[in-house]
User: What shape does this take?
Amino acid sequence: MWGDIKDHARLRFGNKVHISNYNIIQKFSYIGLIFLLLPLLILTGITMSPAMNAAWPWLLDLFGGRQSARSLHFIAAFLLVLFVVVHLIMVLLSGPINGIRSMIIGRPMTMSKPDRGGRLP
Amino acid sequence: MTKDRASLRRRDVLRGVTLGSSALILGGCDAMNENATFRSALRGAEKLNQATHRTLTDRATLAPEFALSDISPVFKTNGSLTGTSTDYLAHLQNNFADWRLRIDGMVANPIDIGLDGLMAMPARTQITRHDCVEGWSAIAQWQGTPLRLLLRQAQLSPRAKYIVFHCADNYGARPYYESIDLIDAFHPQTILAWAMNGENLPVKYGAPVRLRVERQLGYKHAKYVMRIEATDDLSKFHGGKGGYWEDVGDYEYYAGI
Assistant: This one.
């Protein structure tokens, strides 16, 4: 996996990448975002509400108080921004027009232009 | 080969345009903020918030209360550090001996009550966390008269919908004021605090009495309360939005967040 990370950082995506499968870095990123980061962001945000502290005081126990929740919230927000920046860069580098078209018509990118000789990322 | 080179350049142009236009979108965001319809759509979120909170809490559901050992060693002062009206300053000189809290508006029995009178009524002591909109919190012990006792004594009219608090401090030319609805007014933790951390409420924290509304943010906790007025229409007061910061800074009226 470290080899994958190094290649990714060098923007070496490989010619024969089967684009309809997510690579391991994408999988970890998306799992982390959807199941860890976003729930954390939402729950710590709710914890900062004085009314919700009355409704769900267990949130304060979970995060160690309003100020801890606030710190966690800022950290999670920053990580979210980081994700968005990296995500947009990756989208732009992997052919955004083809990518969006693939999402709409349902056909993966490698199939749509065979006569380019596998030049796609 | 040359075909690839052309498409490479095309791709770069496309990227540049996308990045450039996303920068323009940010500028567009500010333009949206100027639009009245957009802003009123955002305002709808406040009502949704309030409805959600009121569904998730009982009328008497309490904000968290703490132990004496949780009291913050330093409690930040914020807003005005003293009342500024001439009346207030005279009362301050006199140690509030002649100060009377007036409760009127839509009540059958308007009251004038002094500090001694308030302290003689049943009091509630609560150690609660003050949450400022700026992000900081501080825990203190507050002791004061439950607002609902005063409203019952004043015989609140069934037509009344809001309780307005008129304060003795001015922000520039405008007096500070705040208001709450009846659910919060009759909440067990809503008190007019005249003591803080075991001592008479200090001037910088709102002497002689300040409001506590424990399920809402700090700016609702009016200091230097001089007069309490029951009403059915907030638009009659100052900027019409129910509080100083609501009028001037577009703050939310319902501050439970």
Summary: The interface with chain A takes residues 4, 11, 14-15, 18-19, 22, 53, 56-57, 61-64, 129, 131, 135-137, 214-217, 255-257 of chain B (CB under 8 Å). The helical segments of chain B are 2-34, 36-56, 86-93, 115-120, 147-153, 182-185, 244-249. The first strand of chain B starts at residue 101 and ends at 105.
